[in-house]
Structure formats: C-alpha cells, structure tokens
Amino acid sequence: MIPQLVTYHQRRRDGRWLRLYVPVVPVALLLSPLLLVAGLAGLVACLVFRVSPVGALRGTAQVLWALPGSRFEIEQGRTAVLVSVR
C-alpha cells in the first residue's frame, strides 16, 4: 500500500508541538514536473554507473511499499522532530 498521509511533528523552542498533516497524492501531483526531472536524472545515473534501471525502480518501489507505519524521530537539544507515515 502506498503511503497517503505523512504527519510531521516538531517541538518548538517554547516546548509546544507544531503538527502538520501532509497528503502525499496532492503534493506528488504538484511536484510532478520535478519528479519527472528527478526520474530522468536517475535514469542517466543508472546508465552512467551501469546499474539496471529496472532493478533500481524495483528497489525504490520496495522502499515505498515498506513506508506505511514507519516513524522517524530526531532529537537534538531542545529541538525534536517526529515524522510518521500512514
């Protein structure tokens, strides 16, 4: 299942949490021109480094399928960031 919502939490300096909900599909549609350029750059990189483009695409798809339910937490000093993928 492809992730549909990313939740971003950041603890501010005053101790309160900033919470953002980012829908994946509308953001992907807005950024699709950049995704097309990134895809072409990835294809060129695969050809330059002699990596199978199909294998690279399969690996990327496996990472995307594994993302739902993932949580990334970073804390440094008084700043904390939590990203969860649903």
Summarize the SSE layout with pairings.
Layout lengths: L4 E7 L5 E7 H7 L1 H17 L4 H14 L4 E6 L2 E7 L1
Antiparallel strand pairs: 1-2, 1-4, 3-4
Shape: elongated
The major β-sheet equals: 4 strands, antiparallel
- Helix share bin: 40-55%
Number of domains: 1
**Count of helix runs:** 3
Q: Kindly report the average pLDDT value.
A: 88
Q: Which consecutive residue ranges, at least 5 long each, have pLDDT under 50?
A: none
What class do helices, strands and sheet pairing give?
Answer: alpha+beta
- Estimate what percentage of residues fall within beta strands: 25-35%
Secondary-structure element order, N to C:
EEHHHEE
Head-to-tail CA distance between termini: 10 Å
Numbering strands along the chain, what is their spatial order in the largest sheet? 2-1-4-3
Radius of gyration: 17 Å
Care to count the β-strands?
Answer: 4
Features:
44% helix, alpha+beta, 3 helices, four-stranded antiparallel beta sheet
Walkthrough of the structure:
This protein has 86 residues and is of the alpha+beta class. The protein has one domain. Helices cover 44% and strands 31% of the residues. It contains 3 helices and 4 strands; from the N terminus they run ββαααββ. It has helices spanning 24-30, 32-48, 53-66, and strands spanning 5-11, 17-23, 71-76, 79-85. It has a 4-stranded antiparallel β-sheet with strand order 2-1-4-3. β3 and β4 (79-85) form a beta hairpin. The protein is elongated and about 50 Å long. It starts with a strand and ends with a strand. The mean pLDDT is 88.
